[in-house]
Design a protein that fits this description.
about 300 residues, mainly alpha
Length: about 300
């Protein structure tokens, strides 16, 4: 199918945007650390059920040792290192500035994919990436950040965490593509990747003595519902579509298209939270769309 990778990346963008709004509602009730633990565990349940229905087993027994190693590393780098830092930035800086820093992920992805995967970006690809990321940064930078209490650290730590979160996301994508090149299907790859993330996050949770407290948070039914819904759109559908996208197109291109999710998330927030749709948002969205079009037609 022509443009299969680009369409999958756009699907990822929508899924991540919906998930961001659902997770924002869940995080307000459950807390960011608890949310991070529960949402990835819930996503693993969705993924294993999906694999059981489609392939007859809950675990990809056909995956080779090499594939499991690459995907396991991807899960640890992307979910444990990357997402832990992203959620810390989210708490300290607020969603707008955290999203701005995460917009650096496509740049880091392209930089890593160049020497590791041999994906040399051409002029049109570089132009499309620049327009897409530039449009996102233009919009997110203009939004007033929410006043965060900074209970988890200083502004400097928040900025550092946001950058490290973007690096983690980029590293996870490049490592995933190393496995996808060996022929494993995206759903199987996602199961292995998320399982590694669950193992890493929950080992840390147990070491910190936070297991009981984490599950106790599920008593908040509204928070749990938002969390489960967000897990379906984010780590389940979104991550799977990301791997589908990278199976067909360059990792840096996929990351650039997916990076438009903050704009979609803001647009959704204007509908459900009554935020005004300003001229800067419209102009930034047009620039971002232009970048996506260039990436489609490169």
């Amino acid at each position: 199918m022509r443009y299969a990778g680009e369409v999958a990346a756009l699907g990822t963008t929508v899924c991540y945007a919906v998930a961001a709004n659902l997770f924002a509602a869940a995080g307000a009730r459950l807390g960011s650390a608890v949310l991070n633990r529960l949402r990835i565990l819930t996503a693993l349940v969705f993924l294993t059920v999906a694999l059981l229905v489609t392939r007859g087993v809950p675990w990809p027994v056909w995956a080779t040792r090499t594939q499991v190693v690459w995907l396991g590393l991807s899960g640890l780098v992307g979910f444990v290192f990357g997402d832990t830092n992203y959620f810390r930035a989210l708490v300290i800086l607020g969603p707008s500035r955290a999203a701005l820093l995460m917009s650096l992920a496509p740049v880091f992805t392209a930089l890593l994919a160049w020497p590791v995967l041999g994906e040399v970006p051409g002029p049109k690809t570089l132009l499309g990436m620049a327009l897409t990321v530039g449009g996102i940064m233009w919009v997110v930078q203009a939004r007033k950040p929410e006043q965060a209490p900074h209970v988890e650290g200083s502004i400097a730590l928040g900025v550092l965490s946001g950058v490290l979160g973007a690096v983690g996301q980029a590293g996870g994508m490049v490592l995933s593509k190393m496995a996808l090149r060996t022929g494993i299907d995206p759903l199987s790859a996602t199961v292995v990747r998320v399982a590694a993330g669950v193992a890493g996050i929950w080992v840390l949770t147990a070491a910190q003595g936070q297991t009981s407290r984490t599950f106790a948070a599920l008593r908040d039914r509204s928070g749990a519902l938002f969390m489960v819904s967000g897990a379906m759109f984010g780590p389940f559908l979104g991550v799977t579509l990301t791997l589908v996208s990278m199976k067909f197109i360059e990792a840096g291109v996929s990351a650039s298209i997916t990076a438009a999710y903050p704009l979609v998330a803001i647009a959704i927030a204007t509908r459900f939270h009554g935020e005004r749709l300003g001229a800067r948002l419209v102009l930034g969205a047009l620039v971002t769309v232009a970048g996506v079009v260039v990436l489609f037609l490169r």
